[in-house]
Amino acid sequence: MSAFGFETATSGMARERAGRHGPLPPRRSENMRHVDDRPDVYEAILLAPGEKKIDVEIDTRLPNAAIFTFHKEDHTLGNLIRARLLKTPNVIFAAYKVPHPLTPNFELRVQTDGVIAPRQAVINASQALIKDLGILSREFTKEYELAKAARQQQNGAE
Q1: What b/e sequence results for 8-39 when a residue is b if at least 16 CB atoms lie within 10 Å of its CB, and e otherwise?
Q2: What is the pLDDT of residues 76-92, one digit of tens each?
Q3: Rounded CA gap, 11 and 121, in Å?
Q4: pLDDT at 2
Q5: What is the DSSP letter of 24?
Q6: Nearest alpha carbon to residue 55 among 94, 126, 107
Q7: H helix count then E strand count, the chain
Q8: 3-class secondary structure, 13
Q9: Which one, of 99, 39, 113, lies nearest residue 69 by Cα?
Q10: What region holds the DNA-directed RNA polymerase RBP11-like dimerisation domain (predicted)?
């Protein structure tokens, strides 16, 4: 209810959805302390002192297999590396999972045929991705500059 004694449509719908009956609870006043337990944004991307970016664990259940845990990374890098690993001829299996959506970590499981080690396969895939992304950046910049020059030429002709 408002200060004038009538209920707005929005507050009525909110009360119905929440299943409450009776008046809405009072608004939070400025003198009430609000506790925010969310982690700071930078904690999701910056490593703490002494924290490693990647942990490697040898998978003893399969030959030539390892599990890599990437800290402070998400699906973006996980899917890129997995896709690149699957294009590598010596890689038998590559998959990743995010153990929990609120933690910025993913686990990458890699199995090779024994010609190269899983660690070397991940290193090679990472280097190939860096090379591919460099090419993409150069091509994008070139196309952007060409489109920009064409727009300037078109605006100058008018």
Answers
A1: eeeeeeebeeeeeeeeeeeeeeeeeeeeeeee
A2: 999 999 999 999 999 99
A3: 57
A4: 47
A5: P
A6: 107
A7: 3, 4
A8: helix
A9: 99
A10: 66-138
- Nearest by Cα to 89 from 115, 62, 126: 115
- Cα–Cα distance measured from residue 62 to residue 57, given in angstroms and rounded to the nearest whole number: 12
Query: Beta-carbon neighbour count of residue 130 at 10 Å?
Result: 9
Listing DSSP states for 31-45 in one string gives: TSPPP--PPPGGGGT
Two structure tokens written together for 70:
């990437």
Q: How confident is the model at residue 43 (pLDDT cuts 50, 70, 90)?
A: confident
Start-to-end CA span in the chain (Å): 60
Return the amino acid letter for 93. F
pLDDT in tens, 109-150: 999 999 999 999 999 999 999 999 999 999 999 999 999 999
Angle at 34 between CA 32 and CA 38, to 5 degrees: 180
- Beta-bridge partner residues of 50: none
How many residues belong to the chain? 158
Task: Identify each DSSP E strand in the chain by its residue range.
Answer: 54-58, 65-71, 91-97, 105-112
Reading the block at residue 99, the tokens are 């153990």
HSE (side-chain half, CA atoms, 13 Å) at 31: 0
